[in-house]
């Protein structure tokens, strides 16, 4: 990888994140996770286009924020890398991003029922989960975030939130570190499943409110290493 080199352990962590999200049922044959370059903040790291369970450190590529590959060496990037590049451009606080097509979240992007934080591990959802409807700006499309304009529109909808839904598509989670974004992607899916179950039981939902979510998320971010180390051990 040309330019400022990245420690092999960092590349291994990013590859592990991809495989963790498969292991935890967030990714299937699709989905992708990225991280901002640790020393070149206008670049990000992301696997070549590959089923996430197969990603290794050697598959990691570097891109600028316009999503041009640096030293591609014949490798092809994901079509939806623009989702990542434009969020990094809009959100200097974001250090990692995950995008999945998890079935449990899809319904909340299709209806007027908002996704809520159903328990403490999903506390970050209490900040609100906006829905990006690509039709609002681009009309009828193939739904894919395949250029900078679509990525920028998604980033605008995400705003300052940790998670956004994409209508009829999936979700995007962001965070201040790679372990945190993996944690958020996993527990967005878990919380969505719990919300489906709770709604089926009937009655009002006693979900976390915004202040509960803010306080609980601080603890989750501070202790995320425990979960990360366990998940990483499972896939390495």
What does this structure look like?
By secondary structure, the chain is an alpha+beta fold. It has one domain (8-235): Class II aldolase/adducin N-terminal domain (L-fuculose-1-phosphate Aldolase, 3-Layer(aba) Sandwich), CATH 3.40.225. The protein is built from 8 helices and 8 strands; from the N terminus they run H-E-E-E-E-H-E-H-E-H-H-E-E-H-H-H. The chain has helices spanning 8-23, 81-90, 103-106, 135-138, 148-158, 178-201, 210-222, 224-235, and strands spanning 32-36, 43-47, 60-64, 69-70, 96-100, 131-132, 163-166, 170-175. Strand 7 (163-166) and strand 8 (170-175) form a beta hairpin. It is globular and about 55 Å long. The mean pLDDT is 96.
Give the beta-strand count: 8
The dominant shape is globular
Arrangement of strands in the largest sheet: 4-3-2-1-5-8-7-6
Distance between the first and last residues' Cα: 22 Å
Structural class: alpha+beta
Q: What is the CATH C-level name?
A: Alpha Beta
- Order of SSEs, N→C? HEEEEHEHEHHEEHHH
Q: How much β-strand is present in the residues? A: 5-15%
- Major sheet details: 8 strands, mixed
- Please tell me how large the radius of gyration is: 17 Å
Counting DSSP H or I runs of 4 or more residues, the number of helices is: 8
- The CATH architecture term is 3-Layer(aba) Sandwich
User: What's the name of the CATH homologous superfamily?
Assistant: Class II aldolase/adducin N-terminal domain
Mean pLDDT across all amino acids: 96
Low-confidence stretches: none
